[in-house]
Design goal:
The structure is a homodimer. Chain A has helices spanning 2-8, 36-39, 61-80, 100-105, 122-135, 150-157, 211-230, 246-259, 271-274, 289-305, 323-327; strands spanning 19-20, 26-34, 49-50, 89-94, 112-115, 141-148, 173-174, 177-184, 190-196, 239-242, 268-270, 286-287, 311-319, 334-342. Chain A is of the alpha/beta class. In chain A, strands 1, 2, 3, 4, 5, 6, 8, 9, 10, 11, 13 and 14 form a twelve-stranded mixed beta sheet that branches. In chain A, strands 7-12 form a two-stranded parallel sheet. In chain A, helix 4 (100-105) links the parallel strand 4 and strand 5. In chain A, 62% of the residues are buried. Residues 1-6 and 9-14 of chain A have low confidence and may be disordered.
Chain lengths: 345, 345
């Protein structure tokens, strides 16, 4: 019973739960922009643009991250044959303090704007809120855009990269990348069938160099809630794609769910484990808002496009701490938002 | 034509625009918690709780801010006769890096959670997204909760308060306070009739000690869009309540709109000018997420409750910068989300 308590410690009121969309809503187009390391990785062929020096021609890394979002949105518009005027609202966020990569990066488009902060789960949060507001008929079309940049994140959350600090084996590599998904009330693509908003879960992990362990209980919590409530099982999905648990968090999530009799099997993939080659030495895997966004906007979208899969769960995972909260002795809460994509309307 | 250009520089596609709610949705209950200075101010009698030393019994100011959100939500639940299980989702945010006041403060309630970052406009963003998701039938009842704390904001955005830095005349005082509004698909209270999401606007203001000037163009932009599209005029509203423009921003907004032939008149109030007594020496007025939240959850709600007003516009204003973006020479974009409240369903 130990693990049962661990995953489902708080029994909520399950009015709160899976939301089935009423209308045809899909991710009709995606775009992705990344850094050199990501381009050299396993999914290099699928990105729309990369920067060989991670600066995107801008004088600071913070402005490089803004530029990634700006270009990523431009690619998504171009690929879908839309202009910015066809987008009713943008849901965006990033890891930088006060989410400035999003607010500055997307400023020139002059669109209605909702800033989000879900840490590394922000892409899932943005897609989820876009899906609900499009499904409800409030917007015809939204864009979900997020980013992270290794150099902005490292100097903000840990040390400037020039310091050359040693990384622990459970550490993850903050992805330099931005992903954009167009969520559309018309068109075709990956259809969004239902969604499950995450509940923050804190199981006392306070090692800021082990985000996988901090987020695994939240991922397990959301996945367990989803299968319990829907009556579906992992076998009903061709892919169960988590955001950025990395090897450590992937293993822990599998273990926590196994205690509950829920076996995810070989369909459970994690974006943090899809991006880099083994020789790229990223330790436990990729992380950051850009990690799940790149996984969603390349791997998952491509597999649907190629008709290789019919149903997938995308579970964005985030660690809701700050350097200050960790310094003050707080443990690290995680959150995981879930989206069920299907090839059929 | 100068001012016309200044306000409406970017003509968007006005599919994007006012969203009229389809169903009965209201703010059925509110709560507010604040610091000593706010308690000593003009609205002192209306707050549910305050702390005489602004710590709320916690060892750090950051944890004090978390505690404010925790207690504020508890007050809102108690006043409305609800338990946390009656709340399907929380939309929350604050000014602290990575929005930790919200994620830690609300963790123990175990609710579905959407983290937002709209700077000082976050309360309006939270109420707006709660309204759409309740109206669409996705949630029965949501909570919009935000906070700011003078001591966490000052040391993060400017200097530790112990430094005793001189403040410029246009500077505003970050409010120590948290507000919570329950957005309900049933019940009664302030009914939400329509909403208008904000578009970020940057008119080149780069003085981080003059947030009013940075936000005024965004406030004017949203207000102008609203009156243009709805065909209504300022006279149709008993109160037009902006979030935290302060005296400087209030004056600039009035001036920008006057150039367009739009006179807000004496009904235009600003939460930043409602909270403190003149002798409290806050220079241009209050600011921060807590500022508009306290104004909404005390002044505006009370006036509706006492049947003194029938229609009001609430326009949450935010400055979407960070200390890093200002240090790197960026100007400061503002945003303003609008909500139309009415005494009638």
């Amino acid at each position: 019973m130990r693990a049962k308590t661990a995953i489902m410690q708080k029994k909520g009121n399950f009015k709160m739960g899976i939301i089935k969309l009423k209308n045809r809503v899909c991710v009709s187009a995606v775009a992705s922009v990344c850094g050199k390391k990501e381009y050299d990785g396993l999914l290099g062929a699928f990105f729309d643009e990369h920067s060989d020096d991670d600066t995107f021609g801008r004088p600071t890394f913070e402005q490089a991250e803004e530029e990634m979002q700006r270009r990523c949105f431009a690619h998504a518009l171009k690929k879908s044959g839309l202009t910015q005027n066809d987008i009713d609202a943008i849901f965006a966020g990033d890891l930088m303090n006060q989410c400035t990569a999003s607010s500055y990066g997307l400023l020139d488009y002059g669109r209605q704007y909702f800033g989000l902060f879900g840490a590394c789960s922000t892409m899932a949060e943005a897609v989820l809120l876009s899906a609900l507001t499009v499904d409800g008929g409030y917007f015809e079309r939204c864009a979900a855009i997020v980013s992270s940049h290794n150099c902005t994140a490292e100097r903000q959350f840990r040390m400037p990269i020039e310091y050359g600090g040693q990384r622990t084996p459970t550490a993850q590599w903050t992805v330099t990348g931005s992903g954009c998904a167009i969520i559309d009330g018309g068109g075709s693509g990956m259809y969004i069938k239902d969604v499950l908003p995450g509940i923050p879960v804190d199981r006392g992990v306070n090692d800021a160099a082990n985000m996988g362990a901090a987020m695994a209980p939240a991922a397990a919590h959301t996945i367990k809630r989803y299968f319990d409530e829907s009556g579906r099982s992992p076998d009903d999905f061709d892919v169960i794609l988590t955001g950025d648990l990395g090897e450590e968090g992937h293993g822990l999530t599998t273990e926590l769910l196994a205690y509950e009799g829920c076996s995810l099997g070989s369909n459970h993939l994690d974006c943090g484990m899809l991006l880099y080659k083994p020789e790229q030495d990223v330790h436990s895997g990729g992380s950051g808002c850009g990690c799940s966004a790149l996984g969603l906007c390349t791997y998952l979208f491509e597999r649907f496009k190629n008709k290789e899969i019919k149903n997938a769960l995308f579970i964005g995972t985030g660690a809701l701490m700050s350097p200050m909260s960790v310094a003050q002795g707080h443990s690290i809460p995680g959150i995981a938002h879930l989206i069920h994509f299907s090839s059929e309307v």
